[in-house]
């Protein structure tokens, strides 16, 4: 089982859903855990009730309305399942306390996700420092970085990441950027309203960046990642 934590204060649910569908259509069993403040995933899959839910959606499972990561594991065990039965478990986290200290330490991949908004960039360093203190984590804990909703402007990636200079953790891997334009926004909104994950209309530039991200996270070769994305484009739930 691979455990991936995507932490950050920006909305990244569309990215998380794309990644889960790509992994699922490549034959993997995938669980996405909603650790966001507003628990938005339930609305996108038609399960917005205020109750614990693990719902199948587009070939993978989504855990909604759980207070902590350990509650997800307990819920699975109570229903005769095991967290370890999944090939990939992805956490979308916006609070430093949703995951246990052990989960932060043992996760195979930890990713800090940010957008261009100054508000989120400035709050990011404080969030990471609280995480270090509240969970008593080692400062050498590695994180990868992703900038989402990247637009064509005069703000360079190194300037944006400078807001996190002095971060208590170690940055590893390539700092990736996912582009944002009117088409990307339209696909996201249409998917939400139709309760689906349709990748085909996304721009070639976005899918190219998504392909690079998949390769960095999984270790797949380019041929394999492109094939998985093509399959995800074709497959309907």
Mean pLDDT: 92
Are there runs of 5+ residues with pLDDT below 50, and where? none
> Strand fraction band?
15-25%
| Number of separate strands | 9
Shape: globular
> In DSSP terms, counting alpha (H) and pi (I) runs of 4 or more, how many helices?
9
Q: Ends: how far apart?
A: 24 Å
What letter string, H or E per element, gives the SSE order? EHEHEEHEHEHEHEEHHH
Global Rg = 17 Å
Biggest sheet descriptor? 9 strands, mixed
Layout of helices and strands:
Elements: E1 2-7, H1 13-25, E2 30-35, H2 41-45, E3 53-57, E4 60-64, H3 69-78, E5 88-93, H4 101-106, E6 109-114, H5 118-135, E7 142-150, H6 157-161, E8 170-171, E9 176-179, H7 182-194, H8 204-218, H9 222-234
Parallel strand pairs: 1-5, 1-6, 2-4, 2-5, 6-7, 7-8, 7-9
Antiparallel strand pairs: 3-4
Helix pairs in contact: 1-9, 8-9
Provide an overview of this structure.
With 237 residues, this protein is an alpha/beta fold. It has 9 helices and 9 strands. Strands 1, 2, 3, 4, 5, 6, 7, 8 and 9 form a 9-stranded mixed β-sheet that branches. Helix 5 links the parallel strand 6 and strand 7. Helix 1 crosses helix 9. The mean pLDDT is 92.
Keywords:
21% strand, alpha/beta, nine-stranded mixed sheet
Give a brief rundown of this model.
The protein is α/β, with parallel strands linked by helices and about 240 residues long.
